[in-house]
């Protein structure tokens, strides 16, 4: 008798819930096999993948390789994307509240209007990434590489940017209220919102 069993990965599959429920993180939880997990990853490589059925909320995608993947409007709430390769990936309008993106490679990724509130991007590489009008309230960007990043209109209020590299980052119209910019690197070389350069100079931050 064959007593072998398939290994499984725990992934949450989002339900059709109201907007208010989504804010509270209402979602069902499923267990998927390795075969199903690989099928999910393969779909991400399609030119125009059909994403609504894919259980990505809370998914463990650590070390995943999704270069150039189309993840537009994907529901990635609390997903684990630590060390993932997302170079040139389309993550615009994605829901990534509390997602883990530590050490993720997001160079040239499209993150326009993404919800990254409370997300962790510790040491993430966002060189030349597009984050226009993204929500990064309370996001952890400690040590992140934001060189040449497009941050126009982004909400960085209360974000943690300690030791982040902001060289040539475009921060015009960005909300930096109560953001922690202590020891941020190359802040003097960033394109800052109107009025902020004088305020940062007065605070001896540049």
Structure description:
- This protein is mostly loops and 206 residues long.
- The chain has a single domain (57-206), classed as 3 Solenoid (Pectate Lyase C-like).
- Helices cover 11% and strands 6% of the residues.
- It is built from three helices and two strands; from the N terminus they run βαβαα.
- A two-stranded antiparallel ribbon has the order 1-2.
- The model is unreliable at 1-32 (pLDDT under 50).
Radius of gyration: 18 Å
- CATH-defined architecture: 3 Solenoid
Beta-strand portion reads 5-15%
DSSP strand count: 2
**Highest CATH level, the class:** Mainly Beta
Helix/sheet category:
little secondary structure
CATH topology: Pectate Lyase C-like
Q: How many distinct helices? A: 3
Question: Main β-sheet: number of strands, strand sense, barrel status?
Answer: 2 strands, antiparallel
The share of residues in helices is 10-25%
Order of helices and strands: EHEHH
- Show unreliable segments: 1-32
Shape: elongated
- Nearest-integer average pLDDT: 82
Quaternary state reads single chain
Please name the fourth-level CATH homologous superfamily. Answer: E3 ubiquitin-protein ligase SopA
End-to-end span in angstroms? 71 Å
User: What is the number of independent domains?
Assistant: 1
| Lateral strand order in the biggest sheet | 1-2
């Amino acid at each position: 008798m064959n007593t072998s069993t398939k290994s499984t990965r725990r992934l949450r599959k989002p339900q059709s819930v109201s907007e208010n429920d989504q804010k509270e993180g209402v979602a069902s939880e499923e267990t998927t096999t390795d075969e199903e997990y690989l099928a999910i990853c393969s779909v991400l490589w399609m030119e125009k993948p059909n994403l609504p059925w894919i259980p990505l909320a809370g998914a463990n995608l650590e070390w995943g390789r999704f270069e150039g993947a189309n993840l537009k409007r994907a529901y990635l709430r609390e997903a684990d994307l630590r060390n993932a390769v997302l170079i040139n990936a389309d993550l615009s309008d994605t829901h990534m509240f509390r997602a883990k993106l530590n050490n993720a490679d997001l160079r040239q990724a499209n993150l326009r209007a993404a919800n990254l509130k409370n997300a962790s991007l510790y040491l993430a590489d966002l060189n030349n990434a597009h984050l226009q009008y993204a929500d990064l309230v309370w996001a952890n960007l400690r040590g992140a590489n934001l060189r040449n990043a497009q941050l126009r209109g982004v909400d960085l209020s209360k974000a943690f940017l300690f030791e982040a590299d902001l060289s040539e980052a475009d921060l015009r119209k960005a909300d930096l209220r109560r953001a922690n910019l202590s020891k941020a690197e190359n802040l003097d070389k960033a394109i800052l919102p109107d009025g902020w350069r004088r305020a940062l100079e007065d605070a001896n931050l540049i």
